[in-house]
Amino acid sequence: MTPVNYDLVRLKSKVKSAMRKATPKDTGNLAYNSMMGYVTKTGLKIVYRGSIAGYGKILNQSIVLGDNKVNKHFGWHNRANSNAILESRRFFKDQTIPKHSKIYNNRQEARYNPNVPGSGKPMFAQKEKWFNNPARVRFETMNKV
Q1: Which residue from 9, 121, 125, 129 puts its CA 20 to 30 A from 97's CA?
Q2: What secondary structure does DSSP assign to the chain, as a single string?
Q3: 38 has pLDDT over 60
Q4: How many beta carbons lie within 10 A of that of residue 80, not counting itself?
Q5: Is the pLDDT of residue 99 over 50?
Q6: pTM of structure
């Protein structure tokens, strides 16, 4: 068994927090349930699981929706990646970070408090609803990666 590198664990926590700030505000499921982080032999791996929040791809796809509506979430994944890179550079005290660099933040707040009994019920009900959604099942079967 390999020893745990606590610096990588701290970095993983900071990177996940920075990435959550860039996820669309009205999709807490995407920010809090679908994002998983792993410490690997070569560093970190942080992924969004499509089985939990498959609509993440849809939110990032097109700038214009039907009826000429603009997708306000377009580019959220690029912003999350930028946040992760900037937070990593800050963690390792990179001196070449431009002064105007800042973390993109859409003020995402978690409604789930693990210290309050019953506060997770709506989250789990929504997750169950998502798993049973026939549109999700159809989308995932058509868009296997």
Answers
A1: 9
A2: -PPP-HHHHHHHHHHHHHHHHHS-TT-HIIIIISEEEEE-SSSEEEEE-TTT-THHHHHHH-SB-GGG-B-TTTTHHHHHHHHHHHHHHHHTT-TT--TT-------------TTSTTTTHHHHHHHHHHHT-HHHHHHHHHT--
A3: yes
A4: 26
A5: yes
A6: 0.65
